[in-house]
């Protein structure tokens, strides 16, 4: 009886813990914790408080087993509330820290925007939006970039004496050019034999001949580029100036690819005519042309049909410039500058370019053209420049002859 009275008169530890939990719940709510973290305590606290109230209302007449069951319920509820409270407090702390970090990031973003003068457009007195500080700065930056694109990047304007930084040795250069030459010869033999073997030999009509020429040139281009890629792959990544093809800054004074392509195309006319006059090649109009000349072989196809003309333009304006400029200007010329002066590398690569066409009668003119292509590439360090000159030179001849033939002119007189 005394123990029961003492139990009834003393403050229950479970009740004190419930009051502590309630106080913590209030502190969390005041600290800015989310309501969802506090609400789960409500039902649990209410049930536990009901059990504690029943324990306090027990008397001596209450059976011992019932009192013990009530005590166990209070103890179990106390432990559950402690675990739930700890977990909820941790979750609340994490979310409070996250919220504080988020507010700090927003504040830092506003301060950064203020420091960089990033402001929204504001309305003027007339209601029209005024130009913001950012818009003015961007406009000024674009104008400066446009002006800088026309000016040299540094004090060295002419680059005709600057060599390339070549990572491979002379052995790699020799093996690569030899492999390309072997592939060039074998492709010239294998493609016609393969076409005959498969029953696709070109007939007498212009369309079949044009398609055969297109297939042959595509095979040459694919094999040649694959050989160059295979021999230079161990040295990748390559320098910025090796095999560079960049269409940006076309009109820059120092290395504008379009600017130097236009000048090089005009210079090529004079250089080819000067070479022909100096060697006497092509000066006799009655002299017969070599039947093996590439242009003589294409005469039956030129202007014969739209398909034939389109095929020839792809061959002369795309495939040939892509392959030949990659081999002779992109690889051979820079490789020679590792041991020779740049001007000597330009001459040797130009002579190799002319010899690869296997037309001895046009060797001086093609060498002169190769020199112009080498000079423009050395200055720009961009394959887009010599490729454009080469494409205009080849396809321009095809287009002019096609127009003449369509108008009833005998184009053999101009060849």
Please explain how this structure is put together.
There is one protein chain. The chain folds into two domains: 2-115; 170-414, no CATH class. The protein contains 14 helices and no strands. It has helices at residues 2-9, 13-30, 35-38, 40-56, 64-115, 133-148, 170-197, 206-232, 257-279, 294-298, 306-336, 342-355, 363-380, 384-406. The protein starts with a helix and ends in a 9-residue tail after the last helix. Residues 309-395 form the CAAX prenyl protease 2/Lysostaphin resistance protein A-like domain. Keywords: Hydrolase, Membrane, Protease, Transmembrane, Transmembrane helix.
* Main sheet makeup: none
Residue share in β-strands: under 5%
C-alpha end-to-end distance: 133 Å
The level of helicity is 55-70%
Count of discrete alpha- or pi-helical segments spanning 4 or more residues = 14
Q: What general outline do the C-alpha atoms trace?
A: elongated
Given the helix and strand composition, which structural class is it? mainly alpha
Count of spatially separate domains: 2
Radius of gyration, in Å, reads 43 Å
Mean pLDDT: 77
- H/E order of the elements? HHHHHHHHHHHHHH
Q: Give the tally of β-strands.
A: 0
Unreliable parts: 1-14, 28-44, 117-125
Keywords: Hydrolase, Membrane, Protease, Transmembrane, Transmembrane helix
Protein name: CAAX amino terminal motif-containing protease
InterPro entries: Rce1/LyrA-like_dom
Domain CAAX prenyl protease 2/Lysostaphin resistance protein A-like: 309-395
